[in-house]
Amino acid sequence: MFFGPLPLSDAEGAILAHSLRLGALAFKKGRRLSAADVVALRDAGVGEVIAAKLTDADIAEDAAATRIAAAVAGADVQVAAAFTGRVNLFAEARGLLRLDPARIDAVNAIDESVTIATLPDYAPVEPGQMLATVKIIPFAAPAAAVEQAERLAADGPAPLAVLPYRPLSVALIQTRLPGVKDSVLDKTVAVTRERVEALGGSLAHEARCAHEEGALADQIAAMPSADLLLIAGASAITDRRDVLPAAIERAGGVVEHFGMPVDPGNLLLLARRGDRPVLGLPGCARSPKLNGFDWVLQRIAAGVPPGRAEVMRMGIGGLLAEIPTRPLPRAGVAAQPPRAPRVTALVLAAGRSSRMGPTNKLLAEVNGAPLVARAVDAALASQAANVIVVTGHQGESVARALADRPVTFVHNPAFAEGLSSSLRAGLAAVPSESDAVIVCLGDMPRVASAVIDRLIAAYSPLEGRAICVPTAHGKQGNPVLWDRAFFTEMAALSGDAGAKRLIGQHADRLCEVAVEDAGILYDVDTPDLLARFTETASQERVSAPDPASAGS
């Protein structure tokens, strides 16, 4: 890849390294210069630009990041769309992140242009939580580096995956000494049930007996079958020959390991009876605060029960006790983990189709489905968290035509007032947990779900990308993504022009997302356009390969 000053005569196709603003001319960093751009720069008196120019040995940043992310991602990992050389990976299930640190390190060592940053191995994750990010540092990566990363990722199971929690059935035995109140034992039951249910399991059985080897051995033998047996002793285990381990062995079990390098949690006992794990709990397990028992329980629930060697490797990061440098986890202040943005897709389908005469274009049949279904299906296929359809003119018919799709309908009785009224009605229905909205138009049938995903990938209000607009051939199109911060201004609009008039007022927060899809500029608003689109769509359907015959 060439990087440096380029004369305008050699700048077409190059990638601008720094933003340029010359009067009315404003080009952002990362723009691929077209022939028209070069003419505009020359007319503005620019003789050369600082730019990057790719060679046949390079892979552009977005393509390189996408290929590497797809190679490292395993089960229950969602790969987001690329933007500015970055691809984020998110969890699709509750569970534990499982890494192959050696292969992740090996990929990071290939070339300085290729980086992968992840959460720690065995980190507990929630659906939608960010797990990792692949970032190509310059504007491209060497093709050889990308290919080597793909080979490393393919050498065994995927080096980055989520292990979902399984619905464990759990049994609990508590031993008691004379004078111990039932309320103390009841509290342990409640705390244990909450722990187990938080991982999708259930506390199926609970029993109590004297804190004596024989009584406990009998109770272990009498317990109904469960995936996991927990034993909470009335007194802490002080030796592997103490009451709990001795009773486990007397009942036919095997003690595998006593103790762990995690504090709180040092006195955990690891055992097995038949093919079922048995845990002797440390005293801290009676508290809901994080301790070493949680780490072991999470791994068992995720289907990777730890043995002695795995437990003894938990010391790095195992200091969980209250210390001055780590007050927040004990103060009840939970930091929000990075997660995928929650974006609502808002499909505006309330218009009167005034230029269509008596026909409601949104209900016009194209390949057996109404035209509006194209926009709705693209939104549903995207990474948008939910889809709202705003109806108005012939609202009942539009809703009926889309009744089999998982969308929320909002009726705009004031649809005759123009697009702004439908926007207002839709924004009022956006869930409070949504970070942003992407406004889609029901009469734009060629907008692909990939375009919506590109806008969502670009969205980052902290980095100044709070309004994301797709562009094709230098022209801005639809749909447009808006951060929640603009909802009040959007709702205050009037007339039929929609929210695009606000873009110029917030140019500092605008991000133009270049796409190759000219569908962002294509709408159907006349009978002639509808007829041509219907004919074209029918031809595309006829020429498409039959999925049933693929590979035959």
UniProtKB/TrEMBL annotation:
Keywords: Kinase, Magnesium, Plasmid, Transferase. It holds the Pfam family NTP_transf_3. Residues 171-302 form the MoaB/Mog domain. GO terms for molecular function: kinase activity; nucleotidyltransferase activity. Signal peptide: none annotated. InterPro entries: Bifunc_Mopterin-bd, MoaB/Mog-like_dom_sf, MoaB/Mog_dom, MobA-like_NTP_Trfase, Nucleotide-diphossugar_trans. It comes from the Bacteria. The keyword ATP-binding does not apply. This is 4-diphosphocytidyl-2C-methyl-D-erythritol kinase.
